[in-house]
Amino acid sequence: MTLDLPLIQRARLGRALALGYLAFCALYLACGTIHPRAPHLLETGALDLPIPFLPWTLWIYLSQLALLPMALLLAQTDVERSRAFYAMLLATLLAAVVFLIWPTQLARPPLPRSGFTAAAFRLLHRADVPGNCFPSLHVALALISATVSMRAGSIWRLAAPLWAVAIVLSTLTTRQHVMLDVAGGAALAPTAWALAGKLFSYERARPALHPAGR
């Protein structure tokens, strides 16, 4: 049995993105402030020690704000776009369950004192929560975005996974996550993608099997 969900059409993508972002914020921020118990402080593991703190990679980290909507724009069909959209929401929901069951937190590193990067870090830390580390939603959403983007054409077959990998590495070099979180996010992405394909069907899906816009 599958659950019928609205088809995410390219012409109405803006509204879907706005609603999706609101749902993400509601789940993510609520889990970051409401803990059934004290968050577990994650420690740097052996695999994390060789990774340097590179403040400038924050801009790669923040580039996910462009990757996610671009991936949905690049989707070749409305059905594929819908699967990616609902996979992102499902990944957020699954991560929220983990955040509540096992809340985690990571100590933040000393930040640069001045410059645009320092200002961007301060804004990020004000808007973000210090917890919700495992699994890394940043990693999961980047990988789901790459999954749909790399199907858009020859250039994106290479560019999309490279961009996603750069974002994944930036979660470590900005000290937003540790390797344990990255591994959790990397497992969450294919899980959400597979479940979105099996659990959901999309209204008016049959006429949208041809590439959008054709």
- Cα distance spanning the termini: 31 Å
Task: Figure out the total of helices.
Answer: 8
Can you tell me the residue ranges where pLDDT is under 50 for at least 5 consecutive residues? 207-214
- How would a crystallographer describe the biggest sheet? 2 strands, parallel
Task: Tell me the fraction of residues in β-strands, as a range.
Answer: under 5%
**Percent helix:** 55-70%
**Rg over C-alpha atoms, rounded to the nearest angstrom:** 18 Å
Helix-strand topology string: EHEHHHEHHHHE
Structural class: mainly alpha
Number of strands: 4
> So what's the overall shape?
globular
- Domain count: 1
Strand order of the largest sheet: 1-4
Average pLDDT number: 91
Molecular structure report:
The structure is a single chain. It is built from 8 helices and 4 strands, in the order βαβαααβααααβ. With 214 residues, it is mainly α. The protein has one domain (3-38, 52-209). The strands form 2 sheets. The protein has a two-stranded parallel ribbon with strand order 1-4. The chain has a two-stranded parallel sheet with strand order 2-3.
